[in-house]
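Box 3.1 A note on notation
Throughout this textbook, protein chains are presented in two layers. The first layer is the amino acid sequence; the second is a token string describing backbone geometry. Keep the layers aligned when reading.
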Amino acid sequence: MILYNVSIPQMYFIVYLTTIPENHYHMTVSFFTDAIDLLLIE
């Protein structure tokens, strides 16, 4: 799949750019929450 050639942060950034500004805060919180969850799992 093409998605495997794109890193997770780049995917988040692309989605971040395509969302309306009102969603940016929520997406930033979601990104860090997901990142923390991944770190805790490992």
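The chain has one domain: 2-41. The chain has a mean pLDDT of 73.
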